[in-house]
Amino acid sequence: MKKLLLLACFVFLTSFYTETDVYLCNTKGGKKYHFTKDCQGLRNCQGEIIKVTLTEAKEKGKTICGYED
């Protein structure tokens, strides 16, 4: 019974957790992440603009765009 209650609590709590999505310019030179796809910092992107989680962006060494800082 305890295991079932713990499992139910875990499922309930994780259902509220959502990871923030951010946008990257998918090129070798892209160093920043952006909260909106139409951010001014992405206007000169020569590659594909991709959506990733904030955690993934930080793991790739990206930092926040200066326009959104």
Automatic annotation (TrEMBL):
**Origin superkingdom:** Bacteria
Q: Where is the signal peptide?
A: 1-20
Entry keyword set: Signal
Protein name, per record? Uncharacterized protein
